[in-house]
Write a structure and sequence with these properties.
4-stranded antiparallel β-sheet; 32% helix
């Protein structure tokens, strides 16, 4: 995980806080108590108040070793206050890639994380999406995630800087400084009383004018610094985009095979339509095998005893002991754009939904070198073989046939045991 401070619009924001819901209205007291628990390493806390719509108050805990500091605003709270509901997003900032997840208007406990690598952040976003319940997803436009918005972080924050960090324990030096400041304020007040009596009004006006000029210069210098920081950030973003474009041009254009094939559930429905042409028990014949593969259904029968007829649409071999037939599937449209899941999301889905298919990784062959000898990177995905036996008619199933992106069925076979065997390939996002 990367550092805990990001720059947005010239401001520094704290990220990477651990968020908890407060069980009472005094969230600050609960935050300090949680920070002082054995094993806790929190140096700062911030509070996000509840609201009239029923949202409970919550607090975030931060650490000085991540760069967190006194009075620094929390990015997750600032953004969640502007974007209520249930959503998740990934934003590219100069310091790395920031992931944030909000559920029912509350920041998730581990929904405020900083990554140095875009692939790790994409995996975290896909895990959040796989759990469902999100009303909106924010992601970089270059990721091409269907339905995701690519709004910029500065425009979403709109200048908000909420829930500022406070120290869990007030340092001894700070306590002494505060006491000294109070004493100094009293002494200055007494001295000022006598100065007011001794100095002329003209001198007071001169000092006030100098103070105003100093304040104006400070504001102008701060605005100039902010503008320079924004220009630098924009230049870095342009360089980053140019570097990504250069890498894309150099990378091989691997074909996303699964996007040119029909959806599994549509292909099984087409097999069912073709199966309606098959004679299950024509006179004098026993059904041997039924296979749906590619764009055809292939059927074979073996000759029994007694009189027989020629099965509908079949060819009888010269020995008249066997017959075969094939029937075309209706035309199907390609499935279109599908974003693959990483291995963690596939494993989580298979276990949660009790998917009893056998999955095995296929050999990961390296691409051929370029003519100049350069070794090309592998495609951004891996392949697993899929073998799945089901006792029911497969077109009545849903589950992975609908949910899993990158699933391609290569064949559907009926066995004389009355079962259906599904064989295919599952494409998986490479880490």
């Amino acid at each position: 995980m990367a550092a805990g401070v990001i720059s947005v619009g010239g401001k520094k924001f704290a990220v990477g806080l651990y968020w908890q819901v407060s069980d009472s209205a005094n969230a600050a007291k609960n935050a300090k108590a949680a920070a002082k628990q054995p094993g806790a390493a929190a140096d700062y806390y911030c509070v996000r108040s509840g609201n009239t719509k029923g949202r409970a108050p919550q607090f975030g805990l931060g650490e000085q070793r991540f760069g967190h500091g006194w009075n620094m605003p929390a990015a997750a709270a600032s953004l969640a206050n502007r974007q209520p509901g249930s959503w998740a997003g990934v934003f590219v900032v100069p310091e790395g890639v920031w992931f944030v997840e909000v559920r029912d208007d509350l920041i998730a406990p581990e929904g405020d994380q900083m990554f140095a690598d875009e692939a790790e952040a994409m995996g975290r976003l896909q895990e959040a999406s796989a759990r469902g319940g999100l009303e909106k997803i924010y992601a970089p436009a270059s990721w091409a995630i269907p339905g995701a918005e690519s709004s910029s972080l500065p425009s979403l924050l709109s200048g908000r800087a909420d829930a500022r960090l406070q120290p869990v324990r007030l340092p001894a030096k700070a306590k002494k400084a505060i006491a000294g400041a109070l004493v100094g304020s009293v002494l200055l007040g007494v001295a000022g009383y006598y100065v007011m009596d001794m100095r002329e009004q003209a001198e007071m006006d001169r000092l006030a004018e100098e103070a105003r000029n100093a304040t104006t210069r400070a504001h102008e210098e701060e605005e100039q610094r902010r503008q320079q920081e924004e220009v630098r950030r924009q230049q870095e973003e342009v360089r980053r985009q140019q570097e990504m474009a250069r890498q894309i041009l150099q990378a091989p254009a691997y074909q996303r095979v699964w996007e040119n094939l029909p959806k599994p559930i549509d292909w099984l429905a087409a097999c069912r339509v073709a199966f309606e042409n098959v004679q299950v028990a024509p006179l004098g014949w026993t059904l041997g095998a039924v296979v749906c593969s590619g764009s055809q259904v292939t059927v074979s029968w073996t000759r029994g005893t007694g009189p027989a007829v020629i099965p509908s649409g079949a060819q009888v071999d010269p020995t008249m002991r066997a017959a075969t037939a094939s029937f075309d599937l209706p035309a199907l449209p390609p499935r279109g754009l599908e974003q693959l899941w990483p291995a963690d999301a596939i494993v989580l889905y298979s276990l949660t939904n009790d998917w009893q298919a056998d999955l095995s990784y296929l050999p990961d062959l390296a691409p051929k070198p370029m003519p100049d000898g350069r070794q090309l990177p592998p495609p951004p995905w891996l392949k697993r073989s899929v073998n799945w036996t089901v006792p029911l008619s497969p077109w009545t199933l849903k589950g992975p046939l609908v949910d899993l992106p990158g699933l391609v069925i290569e064949s559907l076979t009926w066995t004389q045991a009355g079962e259906w065997q599904i064989q295919g390939v599952l494409y998986e996002q490479r880490k």
